[in-house]
Amino acid sequence: MMTNQQAWSIYEKYIEPWKPISQEKRLELANSIISEDARYSSPILESGDRNSIIARMGAFQTQFPGGHIEIGDVSAHHDVALLTWIIVQADGTVFARGHDQMRVSPDGKIVSITTFAPPVRQP
Questions:
Q1: How many CB atoms lie within 10 A of CB 39?
Q2: For residue range 14-44, what is the model confidence (pLDDT) as tens digits?
């Protein structure tokens, strides 16, 4: 059973490689927290392994040079957590907020991430 605190800690490790860091460091960090066969799904990408997630992390820096992701909140139960992400641009302004659903293996590695775009009040 994953606690909110454990989910927060795992997600903090997950968002670290999205920062403006070297590709070598990105690989090291991502390999330590993401399962090799992890699944990633977002409105713009569906992938089937850690390497494609790492490629998306690098693409994020192309899209938001110097930007990073922060955590807004977390709610966890069993092996699943729902987290709010916040994209912060290099100048400190918030670009967007959305959600990730994260599933974690018994050994604490992420096995799936489903990213949801920023919510809308009315469809």
A1: 18
A2: 999 999 999 999 999 999 999 999 999 998 8
